[in-house]
Amino acid sequence: MAQATQLPLPRGPLATHGDLPHYGVHIDGEHRAPVSKKYFATTQPYDGKTWAMIADAGAEDVNSAVQSAWRAGNEGPWASMSASERGRLMRKLADLVAANASWLADIERRDNGKLVTEVSGQVKYVADYLHYYAGLADKFESSVIPTDKKGVFAYTKHEPKGVVAIITPWNSPLSLTAWKLGPALAAGCTAVVKPSEFTSASMIEFAALIEAAGIPPGVVNVMTGGAKTGEALVTHDKVAHVGFTGGGEAGRKIYEMAARGLKTVTLELGGKSPNIVFDDADQEQAVKGVVAGIFAASGQTCIAGSRLLVQRSIHDAFVKRLIDFVSTAKLGDPGLEETQIGPIATPAQFDKIMSYIEIAKKEGAKCVLGGKARPDIGAGRFVEPTIFTGVDNAMRIAQEEVFGPVLSVIPFDTEEDAIRIGNDIAFGLAAGVWTTSLKRSLMMADRLKAGTIWINNYRSTSFTSPFGGYKQSGVGRESGIEAIRDYVQTKCVWISADLEVANPFGRR
Ligand code: NAD
């Protein structure tokens, strides 16, 4: 929309002290300093430089944000707005996001070190998510119940759950926010969003677009900070639902805290997904899919295809193709279009990946590519794309989420083997299958225990299609029509057409 591009954006930070911009919290439509006046640094993974300071929101800020969201959902214009009007405002927001996508993507890339090409695509897709849910707002119909009681008319209403807490990880901040905020706003909920402490700035800037779109103040508030801020949010009395994406440890804790307050949750957690290549596969395509599955975002994605199961008859040839292809990958500055593999997002994550490489070697796996850090690039937070062969599925390198560019190759003989090994894992987020047999495709899709099965493709996701995990990979589904159900509660209304109420003491 032409109008959208003319807004006075970016908002920019609250203030600049010395050379560093300071970002505040977003409450009631205002960008404010945190009550504590405390800030923490946000740094660029590529060169390790601190580029901004982020508000460390405490319980007082969280309380103000939740109260603001509660008022907006119960007393403000949002509460009485029709679903169609909510949809109209969401479409404006979507247009603003599209118009400002490259600037938002630049902030995200600066914070999480992902490739500019990937982050730009993700941010543009945020606009598509919002358009999809804007359209759904007035199409999510309730029902008239054909009840067994004579003379009464019963119907259901979908009502918003109330204030929802949205907590996201560092790898795809705005994208994973949109997965939750889209259905939440379409349902009429209000929200407090807490981005990861490593990638907060894009959400604060996004909040300015929410105001510019005309979404009333208080409908979306933003709290920045770490686990303590998140806990204050999850345990707040007025929060009805928690939409969380992140690691299993935090997910489990959030589930426990939410259960104590009888709140509902959607949890999108980690994975250790099998990417299974049969001997009848188109190997050239399969290699590209396997590489995208594990080395995109330097393996820092929940859907990483980190276990490569290859049929033994093609194992050696396929591994050779893989090594030849990956060896050409260019590591470097994620801001440059030619870079193919970027840095690791945080120092802790870098240490974790390096320790898993050592664990794999000690377990007896054979490192056939990479396996080393690259201190010579940027600030040195790079890990070479790494491939281990001779991996047994019982090894830690096959069972635990590394969240880095480390691929474990496991041979198998038969379809039954592939299914047994593929399912022999605590996670169940996704699985890939490469075969030219339709019969085998359908059979594998039926028998693999995961929320998403990709046949002859990998990493496809869409606003139209439900996404979520089996087993330890999560609770609930995001995206698609289904997702809105997590943000509504159903009310049943009974209307009697008979004005005479039966004698309560009479015979029935
Ligand atoms: P993390 O669990 O450490 O943090 C995620 C978010 O939770 C952050 O905002 C953090 O501040 C907050 N948090 C942490 N502890 C909390 C607590 N006790 N109470 C409330 N909030 C708390 O995850 P991360 O390191 O940022 O991200 C990596 C993890 O996320 C990986 O395990 C990955 O698999 C998972 N992930 C899953 C998906 C998915 O859709 N399934 C997508 C991306 C990432």
* Euclidean distance between termini CA atoms: 64 Å
CATH architecture of the largest domain: 3-Layer(aba) Sandwich
Q: How many separate structural domains?
A: 2
Residue fraction in strands: 15-25%
- Uncertain runs are 1-9
Major sheet description: 7 strands, mixed
Mean pLDDT: 95
Biggest sheet strand order reads: 16-17-18-15-14-20-21
The helix tally amounts to: 16
- CATH topology of the largest domain, anyone? Aldehyde Dehydrogenase, Chain A, domain 1
Give the distinct bound molecules: nicotinamide-adenine-dinucleotide
User: Level of helix content?
Assistant: 25-40%
Structural class: alpha/beta
Short structural description:
The active site is at 268. 37% of the residues lie in helices and 21% in strands.
Structure overview:
InterPro entries: Ald_DH/histidinol_DH, Ald_DH_C, Ald_DH_CS_CYS, Ald_DH_CS_GLU, Ald_DH_N, Aldehyde_DH_dom. Keywords: Oxidoreductase. It comes from Bordetella genomosp. 10. By secondary structure, the protein is an alpha/beta fold. It folds into two domains: 273 residues, Aldehyde Dehydrogenase, Chain A, domain 1 (3-Layer(aba) Sandwich); 182 residues, Aldehyde Dehydrogenase, Chain A, domain 2 (3-Layer(aba) Sandwich). Helix content is 37%, strand content 21%. It is built from 16 helices and 24 strands. The strands form six sheets. The chain has a seven-stranded mixed beta sheet, sandwiched between helices. A six-stranded mixed beta sheet has the order 11-10-9-12-13-23, with helices on both faces. A four-stranded mixed beta sheet has the order 1-2-6-5, with no helix packed on it. Helix 11 links the parallel strand 14 and strand 15. Helix 6 runs parallel beside helix 7. The relative contact order is 0.13.
